[in-house]
Amino acid sequence: MSAHLTIGILNGDDIGLEIVPAAVEVVKAAAAQTGLNIDWRPMPLGRTALDTHGSTFPEGTIEALQKMDGFILGPIGHQAYPKVAGAINPHPILRKRFNLFANVRPTRSFPGLGAIYDDIDLVIVRENNEGFQPDRNVVAGSGEFRPTEDMTISVRVISRLGSSRVARAAFEIAQQRKKRLTVVHKNTVFKLGCGMFVEECYRVAKEFPDVAVNEVIVDTMAMRLIRDPQSFDVVVTTNMFGDILTDEAAGLVGGLGMAPGLCIGEGAIAMAQATHGSAPDIAGKGIANPYAMIESARMLIEWLGHNREIAQAVEASRIMDAAIAAALANPATRTKDIRGTGGTADMTRGILDAMKLKS
Ligand code: ATP
Ligand code: MG
């Protein structure tokens, strides 16, 4: 395969304007070391695009992204979008248009960050397109309803297809790791919905006889993540449970700045997206922790490397991995939320310097 990739850059809002450029800089430096050629395509998205293009998600962006191998999506501050035409939350559109049904969210400890645990290494794979936020184009009439002024009905969609494909994505990851997968659900109460999810997980398990499967009920999982997070390796769960458990897991290793993510599907395109939001309270101060965004971008490069069999991309990801760990080991090159003394730029510089030392 040719060592050439086209990657979109969507800065998003608030701290996105600081951490996405940091992530791009780190990937650029690693790619330069391995001879990986990346064609970067910055695109308008978010509040700044509302001024320049009349929409937070300008027309043409989807079409442009279709021609790419992947993209980096910064956090979107959609809660702060003005109530005007053109203020659109791009998340659901992007996830559904590119069929990014699996949200891969690793939780990894690094020593010295003042986190609750120093020895966690697990991955939560969260279903990304169904649950309480299903695709309204596919599931007619789904979402929330208010039949009377005093009552709301929220509908959760679980399908065999949605469940089996996220399960397969999780099994594939488990196979590359410790060959253990935990299915998290609540089929004791949601007998039909979670019941179907669990059934599909076991159906897919037959394709992966070398992976050991166990089940944990979601409330027990919330407790066990605190008590014995080391006993988990790969976890698969439905949309909302996954959303909550990944923030909980992030809290154990240093907070939201330590929570990266990659959205993948069956298609050839993947999206790097940190778990955290746009953190308007700390935006523009140069103090945002860029780890989650940089690591999300590294995951994208690694995924593309494996998916397209591009050795230079796999090697670039390995170089980034080592440099990120080196920067995190030094208080001067990590941010204050993880017991550092530096800012966003110091941490980014620390990672870039660590790469230079290695070469
Ligand atoms: P969303 O609804 O978009 O998920 P949220 O309300 O969950 O947003 P976030 O923007 O994720 O909120 O952030 C919550 C708080 O966590 C922020 O106010 C900020 O203090 C902290 N935080 C989030 N991301 C980072 C980061 N990268 N570095 C440092 N602190 C962060
Ligand atoms: Mg949040």
Structure characteristics:
single chain; 359 residues; alpha/beta; ten-stranded mixed beta sheet; two-stranded antiparallel sheet; 11 helices; 18% strand; binds adenosine-5'-triphosphate; binds magnesium ion
Record the SSE blueprint:
Elements: E1 4-10, H1 16-34, E2 37-42, H2 47-53, H3 61-66, E3 70-73, H4 90-97, E4 102-108, E5 121-127, E6 144-148, E7 151-154, H5 160-176, E8 180-185, H6 193-205, E9 212-217, H7 218-227, E10 234-237, H8 239-252, E11 262-264, E12 270-273, H9 291-307, H10 311-328, H11 344-358
Parallel strand pairs: 1-2, 1-3, 3-12, 5-10, 8-9, 8-10
Antiparallel strand pairs: 4-5, 4-11, 6-7, 11-12
Helix pairs in contact: 1-9, 1-10, 1-11, 5-6, 7-8, 9-10, 10-11
Order of helices and strands: EHEHHEHEEEEHEHEHEHEEHHH
Tally the beta strands. 12
Overall mean pLDDT score? Answer: 94
Give the biggest sheet.
10 strands, mixed
Lateral strand order in the biggest sheet: 2-1-3-12-11-4-5-10-8-9
Hetero groups? adenosine-5'-triphosphate, magnesium ion
Radius of gyration in whole Å, from Cα? 20 Å
Helix content: 40-55%
- Can you tell me the overall shape? globular
Q: What class would the helix/strand composition place it in?
A: alpha/beta
Discrete helix count: 11
Description:
This protein is 40% helix and 18% strand. With 359 residues, it is an alpha/beta fold. The strands form two sheets. Strands 2-1-3-12-11-4-5-10-8-9 form a ten-stranded mixed β-sheet, sandwiched between helices. A two-stranded antiparallel ribbon has the order 6-7. Helix 5 crosses helix 6 (193-205). The chain starts with a strand and ends with a helix. The mean pLDDT is 94. Bound molecules: adenosine-5'-triphosphate (ATP) and magnesium ion. Adenosine-5'-triphosphate is lined by residues 15, 256-257, 276-279, 281-282, 288-289, 292, 337. It comes from Mesorhizobium denitrificans.
